[in-house]
């Protein structure tokens, strides 16, 4: 099939590349000329495991091409994916100007039947607004479909190629059939393509992300309470998670959820509620708890150093909002860095992938190190913000001979409390007993 993808951000690029992988001819459109040139030269603009291999293979096979021309995109594709940003507006709602702007342009250019697919995460009712924006400009027949993505960064290629489900919101049989044909190769194992109306599809995405954010936040509160009563959140998690109605996944407490989806989507759904005179009390609480959780280690650090951090040097391991990505959007590490800099701390930081992005934000204020052990040289404490695998089994002898103080504040519960006690560290983690 002939597919065009408008917008080559994270979602657009993964969608375009994976659709090419099943033999479709894909043309990706972006207004950023430098980025398009870069991609035409075979360079993937983001870090996402396995994407580079698929990218190269499909460019070589001439199934994946790039252009800055929307007209070319509309001439090429029978299905047009909109994978445009929907950033958070000042009031927390989703800014639809990119999506509706593209819809208007599409209406002006389109000269034959197209299926326009909303891939971006958009508030309920957006498919109708996209339809109106296009219809205003043209008399040509078209359909608008909502097809939310559920890709996790770091696993996006896998999630796209082997989805647990595909959600398609469509009220046109013609469009539904095309979407089913397109996605059939991805659900051979029997996972469902769930067809519904556009509004339900739009809400499914927000509901799923908000539920997961709530699940994590619930565990963060349980973890905080564990510390108060002397319980161990690892045990509570194991006990709870084995109940199949609860499930084992997304029960890991930490220094808050981050990333490009959860924070934005929870706020947008909350805001949407308000617009329809519905107050999502639960989401309000989730937002509040997560804001506090991101900084939960700060009072502990202050208390350990008698409220005087000036001139101290700390190492931070992990800057990305989660492992296997270079994405730092809403990363808890950023909140940590800002607070610690305000207290006059010198920071040595290390992350396997995200350092260039953090450098752009903080520049010379941080000391970027080339490996995890260089970061801990002569430091007063080590703070862990992201659970990259490489941090899980460090050489504790190296830590002991290089750190000035044997102090670890672990925002991701990487180590067994008893093991670390035996190594002689002061250790503070989330929802478990502290070792002094
Ligand atoms: C998420 C959704 O999972 C995906 O379906 C959606 O399409 C986009 O948003 P992503 O943001 O890439 O994906 O990351 P995810 O793995 O879901 O983690 C989100 C945040 O929750 C991270 O900050 C992570 O550290 C945190 N998290 C996750 C926890 O704190 N505890 C957990 O148990 C799981």
From TrEMBL:
Q: Does this UniProt record's set of keywords contain Hydrolase?
A: no
* Alphabetic keyword roster: NAD, Oxidoreductase
Q: UDP-glucose/GDP-mannose dehydrogenase C-terminal domain location, by residue? A: 315-417
What Gene3D superfamilies would the database entry show? Answer: Cytochrome c1, transmembrane anchor, C-terminal, NAD(P)-binding Rossmann-like Domain
Q: What is its EC number?
A: 1.1.1.22
Which molecular function terms from Gene Ontology are attached? oxidoreductase activity
Task: Show the InterPro entries listed in the entry.
Answer: 6-PGluconate_DH-like_C_sf (IPR008927), NAD(P)-bd_dom_sf (IPR036291), UDP-Glc/GDP-Man (IPR017476), UDP-Glc/GDP-Man_DH_C (IPR014027), UDP-Glc/GDP-Man_DH_C_sf (IPR036220), UDP-Glc/GDP-Man_DH_dimer (IPR014026), UDP-Glc/GDP-Man_DH_N (IPR001732), UDPglc_DH_bac (IPR028357)
Tell me the route in metabolism or biology where this protein functions.
Answer: Nucleotide-sugar biosynthesis; UDP-alpha-D-glucuronate biosynthesis; UDP-alpha-D-glucuronate from UDP-alpha-D-glucose: step 1/1
Enumerate the SMART domains for this protein: UDPG_MGDP_dh_C
Coiled-coil intervals: none
Family recorded in the similarity comment: Belongs to the UDP-glucose/GDP-mannose dehydrogenase family.
Please state what the protein is called.
UDP-glucose 6-dehydrogenase
Source organism: Lacinutrix iliipiscaria
């Amino acid at each position: 099939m002939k597919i065009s993808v408008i917008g080559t951000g994270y979602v657009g690029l993964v969608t375009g590349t994976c659709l090419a992988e099943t033999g479709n001819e894909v043309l990706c459109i972006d207004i950023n000329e430098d980025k398009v040139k870069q991609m035409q030269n075979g360079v993937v603009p983001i870090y996402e495991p396995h994407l580079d291999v698929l990218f190269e293979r499909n460019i070589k096979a001439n199934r994946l091409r790039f252009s800055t021309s929307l007209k070319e995109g509309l001439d090429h594709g029978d299905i047009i994916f909109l994978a445009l940003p929907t950033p958070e507006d000042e009031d927390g709602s989703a800014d639809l100007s990119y999506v509706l702007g593209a819809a208007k342009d599409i209406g002006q250019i389109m000269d034959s039947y197209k299926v326009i697919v909303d891939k971006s995460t958009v508030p309920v009712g957006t498919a109708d607004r996209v339809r109106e924006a296009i219809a205003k400009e043209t008399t040509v027949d078209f359909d608008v479909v909502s097809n939310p993505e559920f890709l996790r960064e770091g696993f996006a290629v896998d999630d796209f190629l082997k989805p647990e489900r595909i959600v398609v919101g469509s009220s046109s049989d013609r469009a539904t059939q095309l979407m089913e044909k397109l996605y059939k190769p991805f659900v051979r194992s029997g996972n469902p393509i769930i067809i519904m109306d556009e509004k339900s599809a739009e809400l499914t995405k927000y509901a799923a992300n908000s539920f997961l954010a709530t699940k994590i936040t619930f565990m963060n509160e349980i973890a905080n309470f564990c510390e108060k009563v002397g319980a161990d959140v690892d045990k509570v998690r194991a006990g709870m998670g084995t109940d199949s109605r609860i499930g084992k996944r997304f029960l890991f407490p930490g220094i808050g959820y981050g990333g490009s989806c959860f924070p934005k989507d929870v706020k947008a759904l909350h805001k949407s509620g308000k617009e329809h005179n519905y107050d999502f009390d639960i989401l309000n609480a989730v937002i509040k708890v997560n804001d506090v959780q991101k900084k939960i280690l700060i009072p502990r650090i202050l208390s350990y150093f008698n409220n005087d951090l000036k001139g101290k040097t700390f190492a931070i391991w992990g800057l990305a909002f989660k492992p296997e990505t270079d994405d730092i959007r809403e990363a808890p590490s950023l909140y940590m860095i800002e607070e610690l800099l305000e207290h006059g701390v010198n920071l040595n930081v290390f992350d396997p992938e995200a350092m260039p992005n953090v450098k752009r934000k903080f520049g010379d204020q941080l000391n970027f190190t080339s490996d995890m052990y260089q970061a801990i040289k002569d430091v007063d404490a080590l703070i862990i913000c992201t659970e990259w695998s490489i941090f899980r089994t460090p050489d504790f002898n190296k830590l002991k001979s290089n750190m000035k103080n044997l102090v670890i504040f672990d925002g991701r519960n990487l180590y067994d409390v008893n093991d670390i006690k035996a190594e002689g560290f002061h250790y503070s983690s989330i929802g478990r007993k502290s070792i002094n």
